[in-house]
Amino acid sequence: MKKLFFLLTAFLVFTNVNSQILDPVKWTTKIEQKSEGVFVLTFNAVIEKDWHMYSQFTPDGGPLAMEVIFKNQAGNFSLTGKAKESKTRTAYNDIFEVNETFFEGKAQIQQEIKLTNSKLNKVEVELNYQVCKEVCINQSKKFTFQIPATKMAAVPAIKKDSIQGAAQNAKIADGTKIDSIPTPSLGASNVVEAVEKNALPETAETAPRSVWSIFFIAFLSGFAALLTPCVFPMIPMTVSFFTKQSKTRAKGIRNAIIYGVSIIVIYVLLGGLVTWIFGADALNALSTNVWFNLLFFVLLIVFAASFLGAFEIMLPNSWANKVDSQADKGGIVGILFMALALAIVSFSCTGPIVGTLLVEAASNGGIAPIVGMFGFSLALALPFMLFALFPSWLNSLPKSGGWLNTVKVFLGFLELALAFKFLSNADMVLQLHLLEREVFLAIWIAIFGTLALYLFGKITLPHDSPLSHISVGRLGMGLLVLTFTIYLIPGLWGAPLKIISAFPPPMQYSESPMGLGGSSRRDAKTDLPEGAKLGPHGLVVFEDYQSGLAYAKKVNKPIMLDFTGYACVNCRKMENNVWSDATVLPILNDQIVLISLYVDDKRKLPKEQQFISPTTGSEIETIGDKWTDFMISKYKTNTQPLYVLTDLEGNSLNTEKPTISYVGVEEYYNWLKAGIAKFK
């Protein structure tokens, strides 16, 4: 009887401990055959009340966007566009200062694939996502879809006559069945009904905001390209050609409109070609790739040098000559070739803009490259059509001159500044700290300061005309750029610079998180302990457990483990609102050793340090994986923020409440004082 009582008690204790491992998103999957060799993979999620899961399309600089990773894609199948999502919500996040996009209640992800290997029998997919309420959880779930042996029209993973087969189509890393698949005791008909209830209607491929923002940016880029020396002089020449060569005014207008529409068709086809060849999903994945960001940094530097007058990027003259010969034939075909000739001749000016725009649009996924090219070409084509409708407007056009080169140089400076954003992306992914916030801002201050001097006529470049004076417009633009440059300078001292918050590295990614010359109680410490850095509010922070433990033993202070994330919203709220409090900050400064362990750190562990977790069965490949596994195995939870006060042997000091999470100042202060009081 005693043994039975002991076993029952142990079981209840074990159940209570593990109940802290939260998994607020339950998944079911199915696979359907759309046509020969084409399948649709569907992930249905049920999200617990008050939790929200972030979309693939939540912007950079905020919470972690969902990743859909296909493990065995190479040589086996291709993706048709980006994974589609069901309805999402968009709301402003005042911590990261971005509009975050997320799911509530239910979610559905669908991806169409086309087999290139007829012998393929399974598709392996990994979903990485973040889900938040008062705390945040970074989840990684692995699924295996079995390719049906028979090419049926629709083969769902869950069927009325095969409960067991359904479970086999969705497994996580440790081989256990996904817990959202209903149990056989429900009955076959109930299983199908449960899955159908979880299904959500398919929606647009990308978040509407992304597509619209791409369109407007592209439209403005088209106007910028219009004001370059390669395009602007073509407007009166081309419109005059149509009006003079046509027998009637109506025919001239018609030909000019066809010309404008041809420009749009050419650029939209270009956008479609990029999407078809590379695949929006592939380019979206590349946008966070280190080598892609480095490559695009180099390309933008080359483009900027071209705009500034170092050299010209030109397509072969033979291309333009062949197109010109076709344009001479007249008719609609001739007009189409005239539009193509414009695209080729103006490439040295429009190429850098189109290249930048295409990559930025493609990294948003879906039809964004096509939308981007439509916006760009619409702005480019409108003047030709409008001046054909109203020829008298031609007299009001400013004459071509040196101002056109000024526009081109201005764009060159913008390309140069944008290039360092891509270099910064690569640096932050690798956590090299070579291009920290202060260095980035110093580079931008130098670039825009030099641009201001150029606009004021203090600097000239190779293709500039002699200047006896500067125009009022150029003076106004110079003052605007100078104002922006001055605005950037306080950022070196810790100013948030909200206007450009999406561009520079975050405040924490800097030589001094308090800014140059920023005040801190730690200012007297010019020599930080080995392995430490300055964190929020000038706190000395360790990001490696062993380094922090060694220092804690040296100074004989308790340890506070801070399980956090780079993209954890509530972690930042705790740091901003609780850690900064006048009663809490002195304790964190003087009475504990702070060790912050980032569970979303994507840097790879050395091969010899990678392992299979005995607790979860997951592959531990990154630094973030290691700290997540440590948190789960030691403290039986997977939420962030999570705070633990320990002694030098790793034992929790707060016996009644070993861990604490997202709480107010008073509760956090009392928890700190109670734990520290027990340290010996």
Describe this structure in words.
Mean pLDDT is 77; it is low at 1-19, 151-209 and 519-525. The strands form four sheets. Strands 3, 4, 6, 7, 9 and 10 form a six-stranded antiparallel sheet that branches. This protein has a six-stranded mixed sheet with strand order 11-12-14-13-17-18, sandwiched between helices. It has 680 residues and is α+β, with helices and mostly antiparallel strands. It has helices at residues 2-18, 163-168, 188-198, 208-226, 234-245, 249-278, 280-286, 290-308, 317-327, 331-345, 347-362, 368-389, 402-430, 437-455, 472-488, 545-555, 569-579, 585-590, 623-635, 665-677; strands at 25-35, 38-47, 52-54, 67-70, 77-85, 89-93, 98-104, 106-115, 122-132, 136-146, 532-534, 540-542, 559-564, 593-598, 611-612, 619-620, 642-646, 659-660. The longest helix is centred in the middle third of the chain and has 30 residues, at 249-278. Helix 5 crosses helix 6. The protein contains 20 helices and 18 strands. The radius of gyration is 30 Å and the shape is globular.
Radius of gyration: 30 Å
Sequence stretches where pLDDT stays below 50 over 5 or more residues: 1-19, 151-209, 519-525
Largest sheet: 6 strands, antiparallel
Total of helices: 20
Mean pLDDT: 77
What is the number of beta strands? Answer: 18
SS-based class: alpha+beta
Strand content: 15-25%
What characteristic shape results from the CA principal axes? Answer: globular
Please report the distance between the alpha carbons of the first and last residues: 41 Å
Helix content estimate: 40-55%
Task: Give the oligomer, counting copies of the same chain as homo and different chains as hetero.
Answer: single chain
Protein name: Cytochrome c biogenesis protein CcdA
Subcellular location: Membrane
InterPro entries: Cyt_c_assmbl_TM_dom, DsbDN, Thioredoxin-like_sf
Membrane topology: Multi-pass membrane protein
